[in-house]
Amino acid sequence: MAVSHKGKRKIIYKDKLYLWYIIPDDDYDFLFYLKIISDDQTLYLSYETDQANNLFIQPKIGIVKSEKLKSGRYKFSPRIQDKIFSNYNVRLILDWHDSQDGSAIPEVFKMPKNPFEHIDFKSGTIVYIVKYFSRSNLKSDMLEVSYSQNYLLIAGWHGSERGYHITIIKNNDDKNPVTETHQSFFELEEAITSAVTMIENWINEKG
Fold first, then answer.
1. From first to last of its 207 residues, what are the pLDDT tens digits of the chain?
2. pTM assigned to the model
3. Dihedral (C-alpha) 168, 152, 115, 190: value to the nearest 10 degrees?
4. Which of 26, 99, 155, 186 is most buried by a 10 A CB count?
5. Looking at residue 124, what DSSP letter applies?
6. Is 196 exposed, middle or buried (0-12, 13-18, 19+ CB in 10 A)?
C-alpha cells in the first residue's frame, strides 16, 4: 500500500522522496513525534520533538523500519534544534541515519515495575518515596529526596498534560525551581538519575 501524501510535507534527500509530519502522543498531551517515511516505505523513523534542550535525557530516535538498522530505539547525536521542524532539521535526521554503518545496537528497554527502586540517590536522604508504584494509581507526590546545601529533588505525576514532573529546588523555593522537566514513564528513571547527578555536581563544585 502506498504512503498517503495527504497532510504530509515532502523532502528530496539524495534523489529520494521522503514524507514527514508531526503527530501528538496518545497518552501524554505535551509529547509530539516527528515521523519520517520514505515514499517507497523502506525507511520509517520516529523522533520525539523538543529533546535537544532537555538536559535530563539523551535524545533518542526510533527506527520503525530500515534497511541499515534493526527496529528499536537508539541514542541520537549530535543534538539538533528540534523544537520547530523544517526540511533543514529533517535533513539532519536523515543525515544521521545515512551515516550509520549498521553496527549500532538499539537500546534494550526493560519496563520497570517501579522506576524509583533501582536509582542510586548518592548522598541524598529519602524523605518520601511511594511504596507501591502503580500507573493506575498515580499521585502528585511520589518522591522527595533532600541533599546538602538545601537542594531538594521532587517527582510526581501531574496529569497527561504534564506527565511526570521532576523538579530540583533550593532553599524550599518551589516557586522558582533550579530546574525542572516533564517526562513520560519511559524516560522517568533516566531523568531522575540525571537530576541526581546534577545535584551532586553542584554540591561538589561549591565544596
1. 678 999 999 999 999 999 999 999 999 999 999 999 999 999 999 999 999 999 999 999 999 999 999 999 999 999 999 999 999 999 999 999 999 999 999 998 777 788 898 899 999 999 999 988 888 889 999 999 999 999 999 999 999 999 999 999 999 999 999 999 999 998 999 999 999 999 999 999 976
2. 0.90
3. 40
4. 155
5. -
6. buried
